[in-house]
Every structure is written in structure tokens, then in C-alpha cells.
Amino acid sequence: MIYTEKITLSSIICDEDDKLTLWGLARLFQDIAGDQSDMLGVGFNNLKLQNKAWILTHVYYSILRLPSAGETLTLKTWAKPDNGLIAPRDYQLIDVNGNICATSASQWVVLDMVSRRVCRLNQIIDVYEKENINATIYEKLEKIKMPNDLYDLKHIDIPYSSIDHTRHVNNAEYIKWICDSIPEFSCSRHIYDANGLAHDNINRREIIEFEINYIKETKYGDPNVMIRQKYNSNNELYFQIMNSNGISVNARIITQTT
């Protein structure tokens, strides 16, 4: 079953030029996934009664155009056939003219919050209609192959606002941290001089593909959160976020110069 919502894009998740941010796109897709899960009786509150929660493990975004604040947009999402443990879900963001602005493929699991083990889906979810439709080039997502020679970029002090109802860093916050670590093209059409004056960024890069593996949760107060980076080429970058328990996320980005 394809689930659809219409929204007016809020400036709260847009950048200085009122363009949707990548982390804002992630929030939109997370929210509509939650809305459909609620409708199907397997949302956050339903699973919380069983000490269980949906956990995002992998997501890929393909971006054609980031729309502007005030635009009327259609969000679509659907569950795809699962393998018993991993629940795939795809998304589309469509403008008022029917043009696709962005698509996404994701993979989720249900985690027992007490045992910290992944649950079998047929023990949690009643049978409901799934769509064998791919929104992106991927039928299924494979583990990101990371380079070995990443270097430490910067330490992150986790703000309390990054924590969500699962009591660890929200999925979209990792994307925000990564984008904020790429000043030459991260969500800004301008560069700023020493006096704080804005100038056009003539060499600006834009993200056209973003993929991230969520491996280990990061909790508020962790003192050892570090972003690591590697430029593989002019258009491909890799990021890794470490915490006290090891690798938290791996990410791959494809950019283009505008």
C-alpha cells in the first residue's frame, strides 16, 4: 500500500535561501514512515508497549531538486517485501507539477529495547500489503565499502536537542553534523569573509546522492564523538562518526559543482 501526504514546506527545515536541507528531507521521510506505521498499528507508541522500537539501519537519498519553503509537496512511502528481519521502505518527494524532487530507499529493523536484539517481523507485525516498487536505482541496499585512510576531522559535543524519543541521537542529526562539516558546499549558497559579509559561492557543490549506514547508537553525554573524513575524488566523499563504542555511522556522498 502506497501512503500519501500533502504538505506545505516549512522554513524551519530550510536553509538561509529557503531551500530544503538534506537533514530536513530526512525528517520528512522519517515522519511519513511513522505516520503510516501508526495507521497500520505498528507505530512508536504501539511498539513501546512491547518494549520495542523501529530502528533505521541504512538509507540512501537521490536528490534531483531541493524545493523551497512554501511549496506544496506530496510525500509518498511504501513498505517493500521483507526478509523476516529487515523491513525495506522507499519514498518519493513530488512537487505540485508532478516532478520528483527526491527519492529514498531505507532499511529498518524492530529492536527489543531490553535484550537489544533484532526481532522477527512476523512476531510483531500483522500481514499488510507491500509494494514491489523501487523508488531509487536500488532494489536493496548493500553495506557501504569504506576506505581505510580516513582522518579525524573534528570532535562533536552532542547537544541535548539531538536526542529523540529512543533516547539516542536522531538519525537526521548525523546527517546535519556531516553536512555542517563540509563548509564549501554544505547547504550554503554563500561564503563569508572575516567581517561576516556574504559573497556568492561560485564553486559551490551540491549533494546529489547521500547514503548512510547506522551501526551503533550514540547517546547524550558521550565524550568521544569524532567525525572522520576522506575525499575519494572531486565528487565523492566518505564520512565516519565514531563514539565510545566504536563506529556509529558510515556515510558516502556524491556531489556536483553548480
End-to-end separation: 37 Å
**Overall geometry:** globular
**CATH structural fold name of the largest domain:** Thiol Ester Dehydrase, Chain A
Percentage of residues in helical conformation: 10-25%
- Please give the domain count: 2
Mean pLDDT reading: 90
- Tell me the number of strands: 12
CATH superfamily of the largest domain: Hotdog Thioesterase
- What low-confidence regions span 5 or more consecutive residues with pLDDT below 50? none
Sequence of secondary-structure elements: EHHEEEEEHEEEEEE
Total helical segments: 3
How would you briefly describe this protein structure?
Helix content is 13%, strand content 36%. With 258 residues, the chain is mainly beta.
Structure description:
The protein has 258 residues and is mostly beta strands. The protein has two domains: 142 residues, Roll (Thiol Ester Dehydrase, Chain A); 116 residues, Roll (Thiol Ester Dehydrase, Chain A), CATH 3.10.129.10. It is 13% helix and 36% strand. The protein has three helices and twelve strands, in the order βααβββββαββββββ. The strands form two sheets. It has a ten-stranded antiparallel sheet with strand order 1-3-4-5-2-9-12-11-10-6. A two-stranded antiparallel sheet has the order 7-8. Helix 1 runs antiparallel to helix 3. The longest helix has 18 residues.
